[in-house]
Amino acid sequence: DQAETKGNLKIVSDDGNFSASLGGRIHFDTYLFDSDQVNAISTTEFRRARITLKGDIYDWSYILEQDFAGGSTLDGFRDVYLAHKFLDGEVRIGQFKPFRSMAEMTSSNELTMLERPFSSATGLYDGNQFQQGIGWTGVLDCFTLGMMAFNLRDAGTPRNEGLGAAGRLAWHPVNTDHETLHLGTSISYENANQNSSDLMAEADYAGRRGPSQLMALTPGDLGGDASTAALELAGSYGPLYLQAEYTVGGFEGNYYLTEEDFEDEFGAPAPFPCDPEFGCFIGDQTIHTWYVQGSWMLTGEHKPYSQKRGAFSSAKPSGDGLWGGAWELTFRYDTMENRDFDHLQANSTTVGLNFYANRNVRFMLNYIIGDDDFTGDGTDQLGFRAQIGW
Amino acid sequence: DQAETKGNLKIVSDDGNFSASLGGRIHFDTYLFDSDQVNAISTTEFRRARITLKGDIYDWSYILEQDFAGGSTLDGFRDVYLAHKFLDGEVRIGQFKPFRSMAEMTSSNELTMLERPFSSATGLYDGNQFQQGIGWTGVLDCFTLGMMAFNLRDAGTPRNEGLGAAGRLAWHPVNTDHETLHLGTSISYENANQNSSDLMAEADYAGRRGPSQLMALTPGDLGGDASTAALELAGSYGPLYLQAEYTVGGFEGNYYLTEEDFEDEFGAPAPFPCDPEFGCFIGDQTIHTWYVQGSWMLTGEHKPYSQKRGAFSSAKPSGDGLWGGAWELTFRYDTMENRDFDHLQANSTTVGLNFYANRNVRFMLNYIIGDDDFTGDGTDQLGFRAQIGW
Amino acid sequence: DQAETKGNLKIVSDDGNFSASLGGRIHFDTYLFDSDQVNAISTTEFRRARITLKGDIYDWSYILEQDFAGGSTLDGFRDVYLAHKFLDGEVRIGQFKPFRSMAEMTSSNELTMLERPFSSATGLYDGNQFQQGIGWTGVLDCFTLGMMAFNLRDAGTPRNEGLGAAGRLAWHPVNTDHETLHLGTSISYENANQNSSDLMAEADYAGRRGPSQLMALTPGDLGGDASTAALELAGSYGPLYLQAEYTVGGFEGNYYLTEEDFEDEFGAPAPFPCDPEFGCFIGDQTIHTWYVQGSWMLTGEHKPYSQKRGAFSSAKPSGDGLWGGAWELTFRYDTMENRDFDHLQANSTTVGLNFYANRNVRFMLNYIIGDDDFTGDGTDQLGFRAQIGW
After folding, report:
1. DSSP 3-state assignment of C373?
2. Where do the H-state alpha helices sit in chain A?
3. Most CB atoms within 10 A, among A98, B223, B224, B262?
4. Best of A77, A93, A161, A221 to mutate (most B CBs within 10 Å, chain B)
5. Residue C351 near residue B50, CB atoms below 8 Å
């Protein structure tokens, strides 16, 4: 059988019926905070340190991915599923990402900025990036489809009877080597049930490990639900790239918090009068979040589009730039708002510079200006990443 | 050197002195409960998600297996040992299974039902599936032997001074491509000591993650001991297979529990009068457990017998069945009883259907009717597994 | 591409631009204590159970090493970094060992005794074996250099703003197949800051999992610092080998402990009068530690010297000894002292015997005579290791 390496281990059987590979990635970060009201601790950290086993066995396949940066091996589960070829795509069973948010569909190896925007599991689907269930994804002509029905858990969250479903449709009417136009939409529905964790939206408005603003909360054990609908618009033209997403989310409420608990959870006193006996009433909460991000490849490369993911990948360095790599200027404006609570809004403005040493190695620098309207906090972060994937 | 894959990664040196492989398995389960007295939570769960490194170095070998479904990496240790060829077998040092119970010796990839019966570490040797020590196993003519002396711990349990030993002898007077007859016996002795965990027998009578009935308890730190003796009878004939095991266990007692503690531990009030001052006296406890399980390969395949393990493996699909795979009807009756306490008995009756897509991929469906005489609980479970091994 | 194995998996691309390998190691220990004042629990234990992924991608490389004996995957991080060739060496970014102490630079696969002496992270740099940061190491002529600037943490310790730096210079004026002379020096500086863990020196004077004597303590959150300077002298001549290190360390103090806390931390009452109001004053603490260790290869082999590490490796068995392997007699005297506290001194005297079955497999036996002057404890340990590395 044939052995191959591009930094990984791969073997393909001569008859083509079997293949297996072992890859991985290391993302090593440094965060320096300019703290305001909240005391954020500057530090270094492994953002990701993963091994990825993949294989094909006739028309079945598996992926078993573990992130050692997860702490426990259960928290470290990423894509872990078996799949079967079906209708120009594959049926998956196990743990994988529900199909929602273009930002979420982008591989962590291919991010433009250090972190994904609020419309992903970084914010709106806080902590629910991976779920366990069954789904199908495939590419039909110039459409990328994905749908999943899931139990409301990943390997690291408690066993529970919550259920959800999500689906996404992406359309790329234009997709050449020089330019791409992408339109997309996704919906998600999650119904908490016995032993479910809380459904929450949070805004980490000053980058990872900085302060976090709770935006909406549906208690896990009361049987409430949360749903979202999103629109995506993105495109690339030569060395330029632009991507925007707008998402509306509804979080079921109808419960009371004591004034102390409200302040603990939301970081500031309730901006409305609370009942002296029952406490602060939390009704249904509507979340609006959107972002615009873009980049300019200073060295002229073009960001390719992955039809399989329905999302952009990173440009391959042409090797003509300074130090033989590619250079990219990046920016993003990201905002999230709960219109049911006065001033419950957080924004992030980020500018960045990426250096791609080769297809596997890159360095990223972000300056994030955070702004929390609810607490008045204005923490900033300078973030740096050294990354290798193989 | 030669690279090979059947879904795994394997390299064998040209001189045959070295070889190494990286395999793994994913078992993804769904449990739906029909609860009775106890509120069992229906859920999905990774039953196993393992990587397995194996290698040969001259006449030495190693195996390093980690189950990411274990939670902590210490709880994830499975077979982890080095071995040396010796007398038609191998001497092992490290962590592996004590040689006791035919069900235990069956690989988790080759189980007929979702879970092993009570006579294994699922019940009688609760939580003591793997132990650390030294042992030898080998095949002599039509006998499979195994013996191990061990410290009473695996990597995930506390350091302690408990010691144990177990041995097993299996005989297959008939073993052809069409029929096999198997007889076996095993004994085990465990002596708790300083810092040892409790020695317990438990009956998970409604499947995994369902209710659990404590059957016997020897406190770990008091220096008590537990011992078992087992008889095995099994056979296959064409597409039919039958396996039965009978085990008697003795758990040393001679301690008192308060009435509250008794009810906490055993799930119901003590069925005998307790001393008002000292509490409920627990003397020596005798456990009887046996099961009968069998299956019929609807598509006609034959279950092979592994001489090395002294246990049955799964049939290889001939490819002629519905959806190109093999189909198997299965059943089991499993019971465990502590005759020293009135009504302390639990039973499981299971029927199931297995579909083997190919040698690596299978799906299992079990309906388990649980019955706990002691508490009167009658929880049932519908369990489903998607499995791939490579 | 080319597949290779010596018990590991390795693939090298035909053009030499890429390579990848998967190795590992299992170290399985048994500790038997002859306890004195402290009740040490005899036990078996996996000292190490690691997988190691390495790869080269053009002039970049990575290493991702996880020790499953760590408990959590964060505690299991060992060498995890990306590196770039630079000036006859490599620049590293990520997690690796600060360059200090010859004993620390010795691979755990190549240790002469079961554990490293006090002058390493086993004692003087307690718990700070790996740190996160950036550094360079290389070989220039007959000099081995290494320097690192780091955040005061590894993946398993809390995020904090502590910083440190360490550097080492080793010189081998003589290095032939028959004899080696080594001189070396290293310095280290660590400055605790917000959220840093305590900086501590400890003496595990009766081997691993035995009693531990705290030797010096700089609280982590008060911004104190710790610094060390070390001298190394080592050499080999035919089958003989000798290695010695002397280190002075300064731990900043200037804080008070209550009398109870002092006894809890140091294991005995304060040997000086404490203030009735503030408690026991801990000023700056000066640590002296040194060891001498050596060995005689009974079967005549010679211990090679690794220029890259600036440290000795293990002899390769010639195959002529008893059972076809190599045999080695070993000894060490190790001592650590805090001269600011009366009688705060601990010593270890170890004799040992190693058997090398082949290049990958070895067995080690140590008898350790422990002596704690501060508490008067004299626990001894008999330790045994079965080891395989690939």
Report:
1. coil
2. 102-105, 259-266
3. A98
4. A93
5. no
Q: Which of A206, A204, A21, A243 is nearest to A110 (CA)?
A: A243
Q: Is A390 on the interface with C (CB under 8 A)?
A: yes
User: Domains in chain C, please, with CATH?
Assistant: 24-49+98-389 (2.40.160.10)
The pLDDT score that the predictor gives to residue A187 is 98
Partners of residue A3 in chain C, C-beta under 8 Å: 1-3, 11
Q: Which residues of A touch B43 (CB under 8 A)?
A: 151, 153, 159-161
CB C383 within 8 Å of CB C361 = no
* Phi, psi (rounded to 5 degrees) for A351: -120, 150
- Subunits with at least 3 CB pairs below 8 A relative to chain B? A, C
Answer whether residue A153 shows pLDDT above 90. yes
Say yes or no for a CB contact (<8 Å) between B153 and C43: yes
Q: Are A387 and A25 in contact (CB under 8 A)?
A: yes
In chain A, % of residues over pLDDT 70: 100
- Written as six digits, the tokens of C206 are 């009766």
Per-residue pLDDT tens for B269-282? 999 999 999 999 99
Distance in angstroms (rounded) separating the CA atoms of residues B123 and B128: 10
Contacts of B68 in chain A (CB under 8 A): 64, 66, 73-74, 76-77, 155
User: Of how many residues is chain C composed?
Assistant: 390
C39 touches chain A (CB under 8 A): no
Give the three-state DSSP class for C200. Answer: strand
Evaluate if residue B154 carries a pLDDT over 90. yes
Contact present, A100 and A228 (Cβ < 8 Å) = yes
Are the CB atoms for B363 and B329 separated by under 8 Å? no
Residue B99 corresponds to which tokens in the numbers above? 């040689």
CB proximity C59 to B under 8 Å: no
**DSSP symbol at C178:** S
Distance CA A342, CA B270 (A): 59
- The answer on pLDDT for B104 being more than 90 is yes
Kindly list the residues from chain C whose CB atom is less than 8 angstroms away from the CB atom of residue A10. 11
Q: Complex ipTM, two decimals?
A: 0.96
- Mean pLDDT estimate for chain B: 96
- DSSP code of residue A69: G
What's the Cα-to-Cα distance from C23 to each of A192, B9, B66, C53, C66, rounded to whole Å?
Answer: 44, 13, 15, 7, 11
| SS3 assignment for chain B | CEEECCCCEEEECCCCCEEEEEEEEEEEEEEEEECCCCCCCCEEEEEEEEEEEEEEECCEEEEEEEEHHHCCCCCCEEEEEEEEEECCEEEEEEEECCCCCHHHHCCHHHCCCCCCCCCCCCCCCCCCCCEEEEEEEEEECCEEEEEEEEECCCCCCCCCCCEEEEEEEEEEEEECCCEEEEEEEEEEEEECCCCCCCEEEEECCCCCCCCCEEEEEECHHHCCEEEEEEEEEEEEECCEEEEEEEEEEEECCCEEECHHHHHHHHCCCCCCCCECCCEEEECCEEEEEEEEEEEEECCCCCCCEECCCCEECCCCCCCCCHHHCEEEEEEEEEEEEECCCCCCEEEEEEEEEEEECCCCEEEEEEEEEEEECCCCCCCEEEEEEEEEEC
Q: What is the DSSP letter of A275?
A: B
Q: How far is A46 from chain C (nearest CA, A)?
A: 7
**A324-339 pLDDT tens trace:** 899 999 999 999 999 9
Q: What is the pLDDT of residue A243?
A: 98
Residues 6+ apart with CB under 8 A from B330: B112, B113, B293, B294, B295, B350, B351, B352, B353, B354, B366
Beta strand segments in C192-325, E: 199-203, 213-218, 225-237, 240-251, 255-257, 280-282, 285-297, 305-306, 311-312
Token pair for residue B374? Answer: 């002691």
**Residue type at B105 in one-letter notation:** M
